[in-house]
Amino acid sequence: MFGILMAPILTYNWILIVAAVAPAIYLMVKVYRSDRLEPESPGMLINMAVSGIISALIAIVLERIGSFILDLIVPQSSGLYNIIMFFVIVAFSEEGAKFYMLRRRSWFSAEFNCQYDGIVYAVFVSLGFALFENIMYVFQYGFSTALVRAVTAIPGHASFGVFMGAFYGLARGAAYMGLKARSKTYRNMAVIIPALVHGTYDYIASMGTTFGSLIFVVFIIILFFTANHLVNRMSANDQYITNRGRSDFDWHTY
Known about the structure:
Largest sheet: none
Strand content: under 5%
Helix content: over 70%
Number of strands: 0
Structural class: mainly alpha
């Protein structure tokens, strides 16, 4: 009898889970299938997705600390408050946490031998992050939230991951060629560019006006088309960035 009574609730929860997870899985498959040279192993992809979940937990801690400090020094009624909140605390906490886990789990991997791999890894980390975040939002706010986030937040995180991964792949190639300063610049850009785009996304979304909503829609369209174009271009021009037989290169100096 208890099972019969609980069945509708359990079914609804499974619907919420599927609604939260499906968009992220779809985008993961799209990016994976675009890896034309040497598709990554399932173990590596799972590692990246789990890293994204861990980065979400790290970001939660960083955002709470940052929000606490911001509340002490800037009034919430100030226009500066939202700028600092979205562009610094939220954007750099989330993108910085993603990049930290991305680099920690992939930089020294023997599988990271193609430029496009950077996009695959970064997108999987970002969608692991988005998957965890979406499940929390869906259980808190319901199925309608899943529908909205399916066409906004989840593809948004994927787009941030594309920008991060493009620079990350360039950084890996530059490091292999011994261009230490260039590699560092690309790694910095792999955090700064996604964070600025992420901050812009959140700031426009927070406007709460009809005009703001129109700008948000236009921004999302441009963001998605740009990211999709970058995926197609990087996939078409992908190349190996390492000589597999080389054993004298010390990655730990980079």
